[in-house]
Amino acid sequence: MSTKKTLQRPDVLSVGASKPVVNGIQPSVVYASETPDALDDQYEGRAQGHTYAREGHPNADLVASAVARMEGMEAGLTLGSGMAAVTAVLLGLTKAGDHVLGGDQLYGRSLRLMSEDLPRLGIETSLADPTDAAGFAAAIRPETKLALIEVVSNPTLRMADLDGIAEACRERGVILVVDNTFTTPAAIKPIEHGADIVLHSVTKLLAGHSDVTLGWVGAKDPVQRKAIYDFAVTTGMTPSPFDCWLAERGMMTFPLRFARVQETAERLAAHLARQKGVTKVLYPTRDDHPDRARAQGLLRGQGCNMVSFEIEGGRKAANAFTQGAADIAFAPTLGDVGTTLSHPASSSHRALSAERRAALGMSEGFFRVSVGLEDPDALIAAFDAGLAAARA
Ligand SMILES: *Cc1c(COP(=O)(O)O)cnc(C)c1O
């Protein structure tokens, strides 16, 4: 650390004989060095330190190492959003002429990046069903550079055949990228299943309070790590120190929150399945889940914070349900401390044709719930109020 003083600012950081137990927010954009030699030491890796916040800052470092520890990975990079993480990987590691293969039910903006932006830059893309490893492997081309999948699909909660896909990618020299936002490292560490790169929207469960927008990416290979870092720094995907500070705080309670929401989600799923007018309930640990055995293996018996269900009565019943369940926020996010409800046909999947939605199993009566930390009895009562309104 520099001991040189500047004329501009008094030294406000000294705290005497004791030290705070909470990390501070460091908003500084620039860092002053002692000498040109000291800068050389920093740039050439002989000394640690920061130079300019777009290239890295202490609060981003704290989030980066906290998520890396959770994922069982050596290092990671905090970025300004989950989409910044997806973009930094897809554009930082590809060039015109390459092909990128994606899961066919990726997060909406990831799908858009694949269908609109990569092709515009000369990078070919295609999609395949990740629940079918053989079909996915058959979609790999000689020029396929990387594959991007999520472990649990949104909002239909289907399980990818992660191990089968990892094997196919390894055999064909394809970089396997797993977006672990939905599943979180508490349920699965994709690196242990053969992923090369793991990424997150820290915005969701990890930060957990719907008050920060952040992303994270970690790569096993240092050369790929450097390419992602350079692309992110050049294109300015800088995370805000304040957001990082809030995320660090939020992540301290992540394991507790994740355990609690799973208990409530399992109870809610069981309750919904018993109600009149509910035609389908999806939850990974339920006996009737289409990928139950795979979910058991990959999530090691755990579930998730999401429950999806379908009510009869189409759009009219769906409108009545959200009005009747007035205590539950009808809002398109997930992973908040409060329960949120989303309706794919009118939000995340509105761009799809009704036929395509039907093929994926999302009717007008289909809802996705991100379960929060409310009292489970009160939450179930709120759902019952919605169901009563939908039936009326
Ligand atoms: C929300 C989300 C993203 C994008 O994250 P932002 O922080 O909103 O940019 C990417 N992938 C998945 C699975 C998500 O749920």
From TrEMBL:
<dbReference type="GO" id="GO:0030170">
    <property type="term" value="F:pyridoxal phosphate binding"/>
</dbReference>
<dbReference type="InterPro" id="IPR000277">
    <property type="entry name" value="Cys/Met-Metab_PyrdxlP-dep_enz"/>
</dbReference>
<dbReference type="InterPro" id="IPR015424">
    <property type="entry name" value="PyrdxlP-dep_Trfase"/>
</dbReference>
<keyword id="KW-0663">Pyridoxal phosphate</keyword>
<dbReference type="InterPro" id="IPR015422">
    <property type="entry name" value="PyrdxlP-dep_Trfase_small"/>
</dbReference>
<feature type="modified residue" description="N6-(pyridoxal phosphate)lysine">
    <location>
        <position position="204"/>
    </location>
</feature>
<protein>
    <submittedName>
        <fullName>Cystathionine gamma-synthase</fullName>
    </submittedName>
</protein>
<dbReference type="GO" id="GO:0019346">
    <property type="term" value="P:transsulfuration"/>
</dbReference>
<dbReference type="GO" id="GO:0016846">
    <property type="term" value="F:carbon-sulfur lyase activity"/>
</dbReference>
<dbReference type="GO" id="GO:0005737">
    <property type="term" value="C:cytoplasm"/>
</dbReference>
<comment type="similarity">
    <text>Belongs to the trans-sulfuration enzymes family.</text>
</comment>
<dbReference type="InterPro" id="IPR015421">
    <property type="entry name" value="PyrdxlP-dep_Trfase_major"/>
</dbReference>
<dbReference type="Pfam" id="PF01053">
    <property type="entry name" value="Cys_Met_Meta_PP"/>
</dbReference>
